[in-house]
Amino acid sequence: MTIKEIVTEVKAKYPEINNVYFVGCGASQSDLYTAKYFLVRNAKRLRTDLITANEFNFDPPSDLGEKSIVITCSLGGTTPETVAASKMAREKGAPVICLTNAPESPLAQNADYPIIHGFHESYSAKMQKLTKCLQLAAEILEQYEGYEDYEDMMKGVEKIYGVIDAAIPYAKPLAEKFARENKDERVIYVMGSGPSQQVAYTFSSFILMEMQWVDSASFSAGEFFHGPFELVEKGKPFMLLMNDGNTRPMDVRALEFLNRFDAKVTVVDAKDYGLGNEIPASVKDYFNPILLDGVLRVYGEAIAEARKHPLTQRRYMWKLNY
Ligand SMILES: N[C@@H]1[C@@H](O)[C@H](O)[C@@H](COP(=O)(O)O)O[C@@H]1O
Fold first, then answer.
1. How far is the CA of 24 from the centre of ligand 1 (A)?
2. Ligand 1 pocket, 26 CB below 6 A?
């Protein structure tokens, strides 16, 4: 079924939806943020939240039920917390739509409507998870409330994969420079704003901490000025994600401060990759995190190569019982 067909069927069966819950773990939780951000900014009536799966399981929202749509996400479709969340949501009567790369997985089997996304084929395929989730959120908004930029959003969904694939060759030398300059750093801070804030979290938590065992923290470029900026000093490594959209002034303010004290700054800027030339202005904001996350895959690969620490190396994850 297409995303449109799925939402049409959900609407026919559940005409009165009040809330949309996004649920996952790790990168698959983080990847849902763009869609949640979109709904918070655009929905007039639908309420929404993004919840890590076990928090959803142990402390579910009191209004979870037949008036909720639950969207779960797991790349491999086996993460036990996320599978349990899907089961619990269905037991409470909510329609469950899942996003996964694995059609036969326990997650797909425990959802009413599986949406299968690509991953391994290309850099842009890795961003199908985020993109399809954003498309799903826009479809839900359109069908339940009406969404005036719906056509623009669908154009953006069509165009974003080409923007990402075109960006990769330009990102490679910049990523190699970042890797050369940061391979021996013991800590790297990452920040972003607006819809891209969670991309900073993804790079910090999963690429640096999980896959490289490098100490890191991530924060919003707005919150930076309310605590973390006290750490800034000459040579301290920061990565700043810059949006081509509404919250860019927040990114510019952070950059000016970092430069004022000669921090070691790596900027990854959506404006460098021509987002605005391809994606309609009315929806461009929401495609920043998709582009930046795609480009940051190259940065992850480059630092792994420079540090001789493969992205697949783990000490505990999937090896121990925890
Ligand atoms: N680093 C991985 C993430 O990349 C992954 O997203 C998550 C859940 O895995 P899955 O997406 O298969 O549910 O596990 C870990 O946190």
1. 9
2. yes
